[in-house]
Batch of 2 targets.
Target 1
Amino acid sequence: MTDTADTAEASDFDLPQVHKHHVFACHTQRPPGHPRGSCGALGAQPLWDRLGKAIETEGLAEIGFTASGCLGFCKAGPLLVVYPEGVWYRPTTPEDIDEIVEQHFKQGKRVDRLVMVLTRR
């Protein structure tokens, strides 16, 4: 027997449009002084609030925004990653968020000064 969900078309579901960019922002909040740190303890929430509001007020329906758990680089936060490019940003001020929205989301230009470079040791 075949489950109907296995053969259903995407159009059979109330799915949102495919996003031009999809942002995953770490919302992990560990207690102050935790040895791993966390994006939340480093001030992420006001930045993510600003990002969500900017996406909404600018009418950027093509930008998906998802609260994520730990992205694995806790002491480097606040962190967000933008797909499909796989660009990791490390914003620290409200103006950094504004720049990401304007440059990356609206103009398609990576904000190099805010990119977190991942290197192997």
Target 2
Amino acid sequence: MTGMPRTQAHAEHPIAAARPVIVHVLDEFGVGGMETVALTVIARTCDRYSHRVLCLRGRGVRADRAEALGVPVEALGKRPGKDVAAYLRLTRRLRALRPAIVHTYNIGALDVAFWARLAGVRRIVHAEHGRDVSDPQGSNPRYRWMRRVLAPAISRFVPVSADLERWLVDEVRVGRARTQLIYNGIDTARYTPSESEIGIDRAAPDLVACDILFGTVGRLDPVKGFDTLIDAFAEACAAEGDQRLGLVIVGDGPARAALEARVAEYGLADRVRLPGSRDDVEAVLRDLDIYVCSSVAEGVALTILEAMASGLPVVATAVGGNPELVAPERTGMLVPSGDALALAEAMRSLAAAPETRRAYGEAGRARVCEAFSVAAMTDGYIRLYDQLLGD
């Protein structure tokens, strides 16, 4: 647990031996939607399974949260490339832990399936939360080949969107019987609409004094398309009319300096805030008027679901699983990826239509509560795990 000696944090719970052991293997336990889903599933099933987390490289900033739940997190110190020594360490740890299931995540942990089989693990789940940053369309022949070759070692691929499932089956040619779609879900009790439209302190340091506040949340990485969002916001400001617009981009990452430079080039430093990562995203969302997702590629964006649960209308790029979340002219608007002018027009359109924003926000929350709750997601993983354990 947080603050206790590492040896004590890794001590075996007296009941743990009675529960099936599930080892989750990630590149790092960092900040992102995939890691949030993993942590949520772990937290909600600790009474049913004994979870462990192995990180191929470093522990990551979410490790302490897992250990606060009594779930040990270990880092294997993998170096870039195919570090055989790290994979041998992984194999030894799996042999010692003797998991009933190994659950791996995304391309960074895909080849763990081979080493897990070498360690004697029979049941392997591989989750596909989105395509690699360097391969947003999933067309990299080497990555496709790796998935196809390792498919016989993997009990189930778990795509988090119908788009990813179609891609796995039709393009990667993983057999449909090996896939099980489980949509990401969020806590609709945590993410709720603002109780009042009055009294929002938009003069606070992380926000902007404005009439209409756009916002987005995500790692500051090129795949999120935040450069296009800033271009679109600048275009919207150039034709904003009587309304003063503001933008907040919550998150941190390697593109931060470039994005700050872009904001400065447009002379929008008084309109745009990049406050870094926040632990109270639900509070930030309640301060927004419109949520914008400008991604180049997505699986199922948790941040869109969080925004919809918060009663916000959404403008999103029509990529990946986004069209499965945002219903045009019902919960928001979809635009082509990388098209700053189309994005600006959608942002301006919603900024000028308060009744439409309200209707979209109400419909969006209803949709999330019905189809994308954290309970539905957790039940999906429990059914999958129990089915495999029964085989």
